Amino acid sequence: MLKCIGFRQAIELIASDFGLFIHICVTSVLNFLFQLFCNNKLYQHKIVVIGDQFGVGCGDSLLSNGFTGLCNHLWKLINKSEVLRQNWVMFNCAEFESRSEDWLPGSEKMLFEGVFENRKFSNCEIVIIMLGVQDGSLFFMGERTQSPDKTAGNIVKIAEALEKMGKTVCVSYVPNPDSWEMKQHNNISQSYEHSTNQYIEKLLGKEKRKSLILGPHCDISNYEYFRSDFYDPERPMFNKKGYGFLCSEFFEILRPTLVRTEFESLLGSK
Q1: Segment 43-88, tens digit of pLDDT
Q2: How far is 64 from 51, CA to CA, in rounded Å?
Q3: Which of 21, 64, 91 is nearest to 240 (CA)?
Q4: Which of 3, 136, 185, 222 is the most buried (most CB within 10 A)?
């Protein structure tokens, strides 16, 4: 996960949001150490998370175990489950402020290759894609090269490339707490993230492949996510409670796939 952020990016983050800078530093170091010393032989199954700051888990609390987002809450739910009997590990390979196009196979930043050509991650069975937040932020700041259909299209291309590698892919919708006022004024259609989610639904919603799963509809147009106590009051991000709820829904969606993966591994080992 998370190569160290660049010097210029670090200076800008320190000046604008020192708390978030500390969050990135702590999660970067802890995930680096975990990935470095993790004994793969102890785990029978792997889940890899790729994405932007949403995938990193920015906004979540660091006080539990230092891991954030799905790699904290979802992993706990998997390990506590009475249905799942085998050992699972989750690796956070998300990159802070990465664009959806940065994760395309063959992109200039080579993020896709950096993860899936690495022997530690290449044999994972499940990949969770959590992209779109940074694209929306750039659009809001005036970068009109971004568009909701382009973001959704990039996500679909990444998912299809992973499916060709034999992975089961779970595509997350894009959270949009920064669209709160739009929702209150019945103008949610102007939200970049909401429009991206509509394109994701249009492109992937009718697919019935076992290798492709859509995550929880974490859009504030969904009343379950139109709750102020789910979001960081200072940043447009989930807080600990929000991530906890999101991950509980992720677990319910992924549980049949996790069970099937365990069953297939038992059959394959006989």
Answers
A1: 789 999 999 999 999 988 876 555 789 999 999 999 999 999 999 9
A2: 22
A3: 64
A4: 136
Nearest-angstrom CA–CA distance, 178 and 236: 5
What fold does the segment set 42-269 form as a domain?
A: Rossmann fold (3.40.50)
> What confidence score (pLDDT) does residue 66 get?
55
CB-based burial label for 44 (10 Å; 0-12, 13-18, 19+) = middle
Compute the Cα dihedral for 247, 253, 256, 258 and give only its sign.
Answer: negative
Phi-psi region of 186 (alpha: psi -120 to 50; beta: other; left: phi over 0): left
Backbone angles phi, psi at 267, to 5 degrees: -65, -40
21's tokens: 């800078």
Q: What is the pLDDT of residues 256-266, one digit of tens each?
A: 999 999 999 88
